[in-house]
Design goal:
By secondary structure, this protein is mainly β. The protein has strands spanning 3-7, 10-12, 18-25, 33-39, 46-51, 58-60, 68-73, 78-83, 92-100, 103-106, 110-114. The protein has no helices and eleven strands. Strand 9 and strand 10 form a beta hairpin. The N and C termini lie far apart (40 Å).
Length: 116
């Protein structure tokens, strides 16, 4: 059974940091591209960051470049999103996604709220 379980969300003040984790199971983790998406209230889901299976290709949305870092540990089948210098506009539900060809898996999401 495929599972993606996000954790690490919460409430943080502007300028603070959070580290999201996505624990994966039930599929060949190292062969999948891992992505983080987010969806704010009333807005469409947007791609935040993506990392290839071997971590040799990494991409970020312009809105998070220089502040967020995506990584993965294939031995632990876990993906991460380190978020620094958080802004109120980063408030959203963050989702983990695993994708390979036509296969596409999603986690349940974790809430990140940036507020003073």
């Amino acid at each position: 059974q495929v599972q993606l379980v996000e954790s690490g969300g919460g409430l943080v003040q502007p300028g603070g940091s959070l580290r999201l984790s996505c624990a994966a199971s039930g599929f060949s983790f190292s062969t999948y591209v891992m992505r983080w998406y987010r969806q704010a209230p009333g807005k469409e889901r947007e791609l935040v960051a993506a990392i290839s299976g071997t971590s040799d290709s990494i991409n970020y949305a312009d809105s998070v470049k220089g502040r967020f870092t995506i990584s993965r540990d294939n031995a632990k089948t876990t993906a991460f999103l380190q978020m620094n210098s958080l802004k109120p506009e980063d408030t959203a539900v963050y989702y983990c996604n695993a994708c390979k060809m036509w296969l596409d898996y999603w986690g349940q999401g974790t809430q990140v709220t940036v507020s003073s």
